[in-house]
């Protein structure tokens, strides 16, 4: 039969707050339950009214799926069951049930049930004008107060009314209930800061962006969340790393990995025995043991220290050997990452390369590849060993000392790791912003240096320097925030470590004075703790470095996730080249949605024919060349070669039969010989020179001091436009393709050189299928077929004479060019006459003076 004699226990009244060196249980539990219920019901009800009146239901697609959210719900339900279980325990223990127990149990259950209701309400509804993310202030305040209330129990550490002595089973059960409340409320507060069950970005922004995405039919760029955790998509990132962690195909490297992991386990064992032998030395010195026994212990201790290292971060024999053996594995990882990324970048489409920022890409590759090595090293050889050392230490102290030491280490480690993770996550945005500003500064520098000619033309050196300085200043602002937050983190870690060491040392010293421990035990505790805190102190650094590595790798991961726009089909075969007939059948194409470049284009180039594409700029001439080379895939119709759809064959086999001379030639920063030989890398020097002769550039090359070994400079800028174009033509001649595409191939040449090149090209293109894009119509008079394009459509086709006879668009273009040439010729003649007139009076004057 349950009996309720009074509100508080016998001899205690509600007015008594402090009794026997601690808070009274009656006052404490009444205060805590009242405050929590007031917070949840008073402010929670007001919040519910606001949500029902001014809020709206969130669309399910914007509510994230999160296991941590269900952990929040589970912890709240656990606290409800804890309050009920505590009342049942008090009844079962004595049959008496003080009034404050009933009050606490009922009010706590109601408060936590209401908190769960608020948690579910925030997950389903959102205030329309609320542009913030995360939980409401009411829930965060409720969890914070609940956790702070449980910390008040530490104030009553010495009071016999509380459970800290753990001498009876009732006290141990009370302590267990407190542990459930303490860790559940603390974890709820930490999870509340992250708000895992709510959208990571303001709901109204998500809705607006989704509407714009639907309107434009494409994802918006540049909307990545600056504040998202670097551990987002952690599994995906790890899956990308796995291929680099295990060296496939090399048994030797695999054995090295296993050996390094084995040595890592040996280090953990050594770390346990070093402080034990140090304690044995102290005890044997104080107990008066024999010299032989003492000398043996000292020698073993010396050997262990040699294997472990000198402490304070100094590496020992085992660690140094492991690092030495890991070099080969690290080199393998670095090489594989760089080669795979380089190959991936070359596989990306022309569209991506035209839109890239070279400086940004290079910085991303540089930081990303180096961060993979750092990441693997930190995770395998720093994080895992540190966690293992902590677990071993807790188990050792509980089993060989007592539970208090294990609890001290556990609480200290938990606080340390939790605060390290929370503060480091908070610092993420500063590090990410610093990387962004660094990329911007480097990109501006690279872009400015690549365009130095333009800078010189417009006398803009001071503008470029100022522009670069502004970028550096923005970077330094982000850098200061990053370093300042790092200093704050270090101070927090130092405070926790110092308090933990002080608490444990005082307790150990107390047990020594009570005779429960020997002096060696105090030495063991101090040695072990300092040895444990050394890697723990580095744990924050390791975590930051891992996080920084993930941040540095984000840009590289984006490069890896860039998909190829033009891909070979799974069952694609090699092109079966027979005669070189090219067909465009009802081709539609656009670079961007809503603006078509080619509209229902159809034509056929017979084997050995030369077809010219002419028209105004932007009419789609160069696009036809790019589609044939398959830089892009058509959106409608198809392109065929010898009756085969080129989208169904392998790109490499298609391009092996095609040679291109582009309008804008870019050369490698190497010798002329290397650039010409690039057409066929197996060609001999004699073949290279023959190609140069055919391109009418051999005589020019041999006049250079270094001949064919002359360096052409960045993008070939040491050569003139005509020389670069002729090198490109020689390169194509050396390739000896069956199909030749000339995209304004002679646009950068003077008239005489153009005639020479035209003669050379005529020989090269003989009996080869040729498609020529030309602006100057005089260069395509001899073409078999001329296609006239306007606004992406073929409006005229035929030979030169036929098109002139029609009197259409081609005829108009021809007349305009002829008039322009006649005007230029007349202008040149007039200029020469004026020069002659200026010279005539000067001659007369000179003769008069002489006379």
UniProtKB/TrEMBL annotation:
Compositional bias segments (type: Polar residues): 839-851
Recorded name of the encoding gene: abcb6
Compositionally biased intervals (Low complexity): 817-828
GO cellular component, as recorded: early endosome membrane; endoplasmic reticulum membrane; extracellular region; Golgi membrane; lysosomal membrane; melanosome membrane; mitochondrial outer membrane; multivesicular body membrane
Similarity-based family: Belongs to the ABC transporter superfamily. ABCB family. Heavy Metal importer (TC 3.A.1.210) subfamily.
Species for this entry: Sinocyclocheilus rhinocerous
UniProt KW Transmembrane helix keyword: yes
Superkingdom assignment: Eukaryota
UniProt name for this protein: ATP-binding cassette sub-family B member 6
Cross-referenced InterPro entries: AAA+_ATPase, ABC1_TM_dom, ABC1_TM_sf, ABC_transporter-like_ATP-bd, ABC_transporter-like_CS, ABCB6_N, P-loop_NTPase, Type_1_exporter
């Amino acid at each position: 039969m349950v009996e309720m004699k009074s509100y508080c226990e016998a001899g205690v009244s509600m007015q008594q707050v402090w009794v026997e060196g601690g808070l009274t249980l009656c006052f404490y539990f009444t205060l805590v339950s009242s405050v929590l219920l007031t917070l949840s019901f008073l402010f929670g009800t007001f919040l519910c009214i606001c949500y029902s009146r001014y809020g709206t239901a969130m669309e399910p697609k914007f509510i994230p799926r999160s296991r941590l959210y269900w952990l929040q719900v589970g912890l709240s339900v656990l606290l409800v069951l804890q309050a009920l279980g505590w009342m049942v325990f008090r009844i079962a223990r004595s049959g008496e049930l003080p009034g404050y127990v009933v009050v606490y149990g009922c009010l706590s259950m109601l408060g936590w049930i209401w908190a769960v209701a608020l948690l579910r309400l925030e997950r389903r509804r959102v205030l329309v004008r609320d542009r913030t993310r995360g939980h409401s202030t009411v829930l965060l305040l409720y969890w914070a107060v609940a956790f702070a209330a449980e910390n008040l129990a530490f104030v009553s550490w010495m009071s016999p009314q509380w459970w800290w002595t753990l001498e009876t089973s009732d006290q141990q059960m009370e302590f267990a209930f407190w542990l459930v409340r303490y860790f559940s409320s603390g974890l709820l507060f930490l999870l509340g800061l992250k708000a895992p069950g709510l959208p990571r970005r303001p709901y109204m922004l998500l809705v607006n962006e989704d509407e714009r995405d639907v309107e434009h039919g494409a994802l918006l760029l540049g909307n990545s969340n600056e504040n998202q955790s670097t551990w987002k998509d952690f599994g995906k990132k790890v899956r990308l790393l796995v291929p680099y962690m295990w060296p496939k195909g090399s048994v030797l490297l695999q054995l090295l990995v296993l050996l390094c992991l084995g040595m890592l386990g040996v280090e953990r064992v050594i770390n346990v025995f070093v402080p034990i032998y140090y304690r044995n030395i102290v005890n044997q010195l104080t107990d008066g043991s024999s010299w032989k026994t003492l000398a043996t212990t000292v020698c073993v201790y010396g050997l262990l220290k040699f294997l472990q290292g000198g402490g304070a971060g100094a590496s020992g024999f085992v660690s140094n050997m492991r690092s030495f053996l890991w070099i080969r594995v690290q080199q393998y990882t670095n090489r594989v990452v760089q080669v795979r990324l380089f190959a991936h970048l070359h596989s990306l489409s022309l569209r991506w390369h035209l839109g890239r920022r070279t400086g940004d890409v290079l910085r991303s590759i540089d930081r990303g590849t180096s961060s993979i090595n750092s990441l693997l090293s930190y995770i395998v050889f720093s994080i895992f060993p540190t966690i293992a050392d902590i677990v071993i230490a807790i188990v050792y102290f509980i089993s060989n000392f007592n539970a208090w030491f294990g609890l001290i280490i556990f609480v200290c480690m938990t606080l340390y790791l939790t605060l390290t993770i929370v503060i480091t996550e908070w610092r993420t945005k500063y590090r990410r912003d610093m990387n962004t500003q660094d990329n911007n500064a480097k990109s501006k520098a690279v872009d400015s240096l690549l365009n130095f000619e333009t800078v010189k033309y417009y006398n803009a050196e001071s503008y470029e320097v100022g522009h670069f300085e502004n970028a550096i200043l923005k970077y330094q602002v982000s850098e200061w925030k990053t370093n300042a937050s790092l200093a704050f983190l270090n101070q927090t870690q130092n405070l926790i470590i110092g308090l933990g060491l002080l608490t444990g040392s005082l307790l150990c010293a107390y047990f020594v004075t009570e005779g429960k421990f020997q002096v060696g035990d105090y030495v063991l505790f101090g040695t072990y703790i300092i040895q444990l805190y050394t890697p723990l102190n580095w744990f924050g650094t390791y975590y930051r470095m891992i996080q920084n590595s993930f941040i540095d790798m984000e840009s590289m991961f984006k490069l890896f996730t860039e998909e190829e726009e033009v891909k070979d089909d799974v069952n694609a075969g090699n092109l079966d080249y027979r005669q070189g007939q090219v067909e465009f059948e009802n081709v539609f194409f656009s670079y961007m949605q809503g603006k078509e470049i080619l509209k229902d284009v159809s034509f056929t180039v017979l084997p050995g024919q030369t077809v010219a594409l002419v028209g105004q700029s932007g009419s789609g001439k160069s696009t036809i060349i790019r589609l044939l080379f398959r830089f892009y895939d058509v959106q409608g119709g198809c392109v065929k070669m010898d009756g085969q759809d080129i989208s169904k064959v392998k790109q490499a086999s298609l391009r092996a039969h095609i040679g291109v001379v582009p309008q804008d030639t870019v050369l490698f920063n190497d010798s002329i010989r290397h650039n010409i030989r690039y057409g066929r890398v197996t060609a001999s020097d004699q073949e290279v020179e023959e190609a140069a002769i055919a391109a009418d550039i051999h005589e020019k090359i041999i006049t250079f001091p270094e001949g064919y070994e002359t360096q052409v400079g960045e993008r070939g800028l040491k050569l003139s436009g005509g020389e670069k174009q002729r090198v490109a033509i020689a390169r194509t001649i050396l390739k000896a393709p069956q199909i030749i595409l000339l995209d304004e191939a002679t646009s950068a040449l003077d008239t005489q050189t153009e005639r020479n090149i035209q003669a050379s090209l005529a020989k090269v293109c003989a009996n080869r299928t040729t498609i020529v894009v030309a602006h100057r119509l005089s260069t395509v008079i001899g073409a078999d077929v001329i296609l006239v394009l306007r606004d992406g459509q073929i409006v005229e086709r035929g030979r030169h004479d036929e098109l002139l006879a029609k009197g259409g668009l081609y005829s108009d273009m021809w007349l305009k060019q002829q008039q322009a040439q006649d005007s230029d010729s007349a202008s040149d003649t007039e200029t020469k006459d004026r020069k002659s007139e200026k010279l005539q009076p000067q001659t007369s004057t000179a003769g008069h003076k002489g006379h």
